[in-house]
Amino acid sequence: MSANDLLKLNAALNEFQANKEVDDMIMVKSAGPKIVTYEVRSTDRETTRNDVEKALKKHRLGTVSRQLMNVSSMEVTNCKAGGMIYRFVYKPTKGGMSQTTLNASITELFPCIAFETGIKSGQIKNVKDFYNKIIENNSKDLNCYLNAKDAKAGKEFIDKAETGKFQEKVQNAINILKWIEGVNKLHPVEKVFWGYRAKPQGVMSNHPGDIFLQFKNKKYLGVSLKAGGEKTDEPKLNTYVKPIYDFYGRGNEYEKLKDKLWPQYSVIPGITDADKRLWGTQTLAKKTFEFEQTDEKTYNELYDKNLAIIKDELIKLLNSDFKKTKEWLLEKVAQQQQDVPLVVVKATDKQARRDKSSDMLVEALASVKKIQAMPPKGSSKQGWNIMLSDGSKLKMDFTTRTNKVGAMHKMGQFSNLAVKFNKVSSIK
After folding, report:
1. 250, pLDDT greater than 90
2. 56 Cβ partners below 8 Å, 6+ apart?
């Protein structure tokens, strides 16, 4: 790869990744003398492919074309530059709960339509039969749609359902319907709303509920739907370091992180003290990227040092204010809205049930007496924990890591690394 091509490729990757969601990622899958293969994981593969190709063409890296290969169900992108081929293979986002917009919408929307139109789970013969019933009963005038825009989106998702993980997601939807029917037997449900973009009147626009049950007494229950295996743990929070500091009103402390991290940047050849003013910019990120190409081992050692510092500072922040940390855990992690409570329901191919771990967390936070963030036992570079104590004890598992590629990853992500809450468990 020539230096010029490297700069063009990096510029294209930077442009593609700007303002992407936490779980949208691109990584090097393999690198040979003539072909470099990138695996691109996204919640919307078609849009992502268009974005990648647009960026490659804009920066004139080479000739861009598509090719159907057995490595993916959709055409890959080939970019020929000089004697090299840069190949981009598109895959759905990893993880049991992570899915394309289409797949998620099947799981969320189909039960809403079914409940409103009287489709009973006991009358469904199979997945195909349920799908046909949804097609027949769907209408833009259904109450489950909160506005015309969501109704239009719903029809599009129904029309395209068979192009996604059809069998799996429709079965999940059937199991969600069974769960709603079970709730209705104990607590009569008047309406079920799809919270795709709009939320029911009186519900905050940022409420994390995917669907909303309205009971006969007009009260709402928000439901966050997770899909996965029977024994898998899906990430329950995706955020970044900066929003956590902002929640505490400690933006000034976040800015000071660069003073603790800078020593690892200052030793990189080509970076001077004057470059500190470029903190957080692509210009400085490119300099770290160029160093990575020449001395990857040292680069990773510097990144690991900064990762450890960021983890330690996060732990200090969370331990500095019990009241604020409890508030953050309730609002951002447990995702509780006072007037509209939230429950988490996990759907598998066999059933849909309340996520007991989420219930356990909410209950613990109601009576918690001590909150302590700490490094994990063992040698995990990315992991850390929060312990909740009120007589019993819960352990919350978090990770802090890079989630970008190219110049923007690791050292090029600076202090704003990704933070994920993965699971909660009881400690005896």
Report:
1. yes
2. 12, 62, 64, 77, 79, 86
What are the distances in angstroms from CA 113 to CA 39, 191, 274, 299? 36, 10, 60, 53
Mean pLDDT, residues 351-362 taken together: 77
Contact status, residue 342 vs residue 207, Cβ threshold 8 Å? yes
Q: Position of tokens 């919640």?
A: 43
Q: Where along the chain do the CATH 3.30.460 domains lie?
A: 3-92
CB 142, CB 113: distance < 8 Å: yes
How far is it, in rounded angstroms, from Cα 378 to Cα 387?
16
Q: Does pLDDT of 231 surpass 70?
A: no
Name the CATH architecture for the domain at 3-92. 2-Layer Sandwich (3.30)
What are the residue ranges of helices labelled H in 320-391?
A: 322-328, 356-367
Token pair for residue 54?
């647009």
Q: What pLDDT does residue 338 have? A: 55
Backbone dihedral region for residue 301 (phi beyond 0: left; psi -120 to 50: alpha; all else: beta): alpha
- Strands (E) in 129-194, as ranges, are 189-194
Those residues whose C-beta lies under 8 Å from the C-beta of residue 79, and which sit 6 or more positions away, are 56, 61, 62, 63, 64, 85, 86, 87, 88
Q: Give me the pLDDT at residue 306, please.
A: 97
Mean pLDDT across the chain: 86
Q: Measuring CA to CA, which residue among 280, 254, 226 is closest to residue 421?
A: 226
Contact indicator for 352, 172 with CB cutoff of 8 Å: yes
262: closest CA among 277, 283, 252, 245?
A: 277
Could you tell me the two tokens for 93?
A: 């986002």
299-339 pLDDT tens trace: 999 999 999 999 999 999 999 999 999 999 988 887 766 56
Structure tokens at 184: 């209705």
* pLDDT computed for residue 25 by the predictor: 65
Distance from C-alpha of 97 to C-alpha of 161, rounded to nearest angstrom: 18
> CA separation (Å) from 210 to 109, 197, 219, 246?
9, 9, 16, 26
Counting residues of the chain whose pLDDT is more than 90, the rounded percentage is 50
